Amino acid sequence: MKTLKELTRPNIWELKPYSSARDEYKGAVASVFLDANENPYSLPHNRYPDPLQRDLKTELSKIKKVSPEHIFLGNGSDEAIDLVYRAFCEPEKDNVVAIDPTYGMYQVCADVNNVEYRKVLLNDKFQFSAEDLLAATDEHTKLIFLCSPNNPTGNDLNGSEIEKVLSKFEGLVILDEAYNDFSATPSFLRNLEQYPNLVILQTFSKAWGSAAIRLGMAFASEGIIGILNKIKYPYNVNQLTQQQAMELLRKYYEVERWVTSLKEEREVLTHAFKKLSCTEKIFPSDANFFLARVTDAVKIYNYLVGLGIIVRNRNSIALCGNCLRVTVGTRRENEILIEALQKYKG
Ligand SMILES: *Cc1c(COP(=O)(O)O)cnc(C)c1O
C-alpha cells in the first residue's frame, strides 16, 4: 500500500479542521457551559452533541470487538462513502474501480465529486476476479469498491478474491458489509489489523432495524479514521440518533432475533417464489433480499404496484435483465406478495 499521505489529497492532508466548542473543552467536571452560544432553557435538546460520539463508540466497540479509534460514525454509510471520495480522490485526476452491478451510491458520489468511476462486470455467477479488477486500475486509482453480500445480486463475494485485492492493491479497498449480518460468512472486521488499506462499511439501516435514524459505521486504521473525522461536519451525528442507537445497543439481543427470523423467512419466501409460474430463476442470497429473474419484470412490477405491493425493478441494471429485487418482509407481507403473484396472468 502507498503511504496514507500519498493517498490523501494534499489539501486534505494539510487541512486544519474546524475546532468546535465541544472539541476544545472535553472534560466532564464543568457545570456551567457558556462556551457554545446554546440556549440554556430548552432541555433536553439544547446542547450540541458529542462530535466524536464517544459513549456510542465505547458500546459499539464491545459488540464489534474493535477499539473506538478504529470506528467512524456518520449520517448513514452514505456519508462515509462521500467522505472517502472527498478525502482521497482529486477531481478530474484520480479514479476509482468498482464491481458492476453494485450499490448505486458509489457511482453517484463519484459523479458528484467529479471522479472517474470504472466498472468491472461480474461474471454470470455474480462473482469477480481480483486479476480483472486490478487490471482496471492505474497509478491514479485511489479506491476499489466491493460490496459483500452485494446489492442488488444478494450474494457474498468470494473471500479469497477479496483478500487478493487487499494484498495487491496500492490504494484503499472499501468493503461494504451492509448485509453481512444475514450472511454465514464472517465479517472482514477481524482482518482490520492485517490490511491497513481496508475500510469496512456497516450500517444501522438494515439488520439493525434503524434506517430512520441515519447512522452508518466505517472501520479502518486509526490514520484513515482520523482523516474522515477531520473533514466531516463537526456535529454529523445528532443527539437523538446517538441516544436511539445507545438504546438499540442495550437490547442488542433483539437485533439477533430479527436476523434469525429474517433468515428463516428468506428461506420460506424463496421456496414459494421458486414455484411461481412467472419465476425463471432465483439467485442465491446471503442478504435480507433476493434477486429473481421473472418472465417480464416491467409488467410484473407494474401489476404489483397496482395492488399496493412495491418491489424493486432492477430490469435496466447490468446482468439483471428481467430481474426484480425483493426484500424479505414479515410472514404476512411475504404471503401477500406470493398470493398476488400466484394470481398473476402473464
Ligand atoms: C442500504 C445500503 C447501505 C446503507 O446506507 P445507509 O446510508 O447507512 O442507510 C449501504 N450500502 C449498501 C450496499 C446498501 O444496500
TrEMBL record:
PROSITE patterns: AA_TRANSFER_CLASS_2. The keyword Transmembrane does not apply. It catalyses: L-histidinol phosphate + 2-oxoglutarate = 3-(imidazol-4-yl)-2-oxopropyl phosphate + L-glutamate. SUPFAM superfamilies: PLP-dependent transferases (SSF53383). InterPro entries: Aminotrans_II_pyridoxalP_BS, Aminotransferase_I/II_large, HisP_aminotrans, PyrdxlP-dep_Trfase, PyrdxlP-dep_Trfase_major, PyrdxlP-dep_Trfase_small. Its EC number is 2.6.1.9. GO terms for biological process: L-histidine biosynthetic process. Pathway: Amino-acid biosynthesis; L-histidine biosynthesis; L-histidine from 5-phospho-alpha-D-ribose 1-diphosphate: step 7/9; Lipid metabolism. Keywords: Amino-acid biosynthesis, Aminotransferase, Histidine biosynthesis, Pyridoxal phosphate, Transferase. The modification N6-(pyridoxal phosphate)lysine is found at residue 206. It comes from the Bacteria. Homodimer. Belongs to the class-II pyridoxal-phosphate-dependent aminotransferase family. Histidinol-phosphate aminotransferase subfamily. This is Histidinol-phosphate aminotransferase. It comes from Bacteroides reticulotermitis. The lineage of its organism: Bacteria, Pseudomonadati, Bacteroidota, Bacteroidia, Bacteroidales.
